[in-house]
């Protein structure tokens, strides 16, 4: 058995994509390469890890996308799949442990999305982060439906600016450069809705992506008062928020997270809490974290700590004035 990457073994790219699509029960009208372009694009193949059997067939894959979040590097994991003929033989565990070991010293944390809580808890991942889902009102307003890839250069620059001044101001979220925007434009399964006044985009939102986010609005920006804007766009679908804006909405966990390098994780937590918490030690074997808070040395289970800092049940003693973490569905993998 061999563990390698798609960059080192480019002849296995299509076989890997087929494995992923079969594992996730993809319908013929959807394509993993489209829905998760930032993960599986050629420029990220060095971070797409595969396990090969003795016949050099792909039997498992885990993709990694490194991003900047809260001023530090974080690794998002996705496209996690194992050939059904080889399940139960420990191949997923071997590959996951190899990937985590390979990346741990370089990142503050690992993030992934899944409904397999029991499975990922074995690798030190914990459900945390707050996400609020607002119901759809079912009444459309005056927005133009388009695609990111079809925007004119002028409107694309306006959209980038609105992302930075609205969505990225409201939340601690992924920092994007021009290359990131170009890659995101490849996600043609996602619909962009815009409102234009005097040739300028004043409001926008992204909705839908592949099979997973149908009817979900997961990124948005506006130049107007936010609560009325959200009420307006909820006529198109359910809206995901990183924090509540009124008494309505269902609060949910946002992602699974596992600490990475202790020094980088400490910076990550310090940045989120505005230096209120200083990490002393993370013990992955005992799943405990020790930290300084208000001149006291405290210890907690990692899960309780993460939920107390990132939500959905923040510590009452923590004077949170920083922006909550919220990752757009356009970026999630």
Helix content: 25-40%
Question: What does the largest sheet look like?
Answer: 12 strands, mixed
- Class per helix and strand makeup: alpha+beta
CATH level 4 superfamily of the largest domain: Gcn5-related N-acetyltransferase (GNAT)
* CATH fold-level name of the largest domain: Aminopeptidase
Count of helical segments?
10
Q: Can you tell me the CATH class of the largest domain? A: Alpha Beta
Question: Strand order of the main beta sheet, please?
Answer: 1-2-3-4-5-12-6-11-10-9-8-7
How many individual β-strands?
Answer: 15
Order of helices and strands: EHHHEEEHEHEEHHEEEHEEHEEEH
Average pLDDT level: 94
Residue stretches low in confidence (pLDDT < 50, at least 5 long) are none
3D structure, described in words:
With 333 residues, the chain is an alpha+beta fold. It folds into 3 domains: 2-126, Aminopeptidase; 133-251, Aminopeptidase; 260-310, no CATH class. The protein has 10 helices and 15 strands. The strands form 2 sheets. A 12-stranded mixed beta sheet has the order 1-2-3-4-5-12-6-11-10-9-8-7. Strands 13-14-15 form a 3-stranded antiparallel beta sheet. A hairpin with a 2-residue loop joins strand 3 and strand 4.
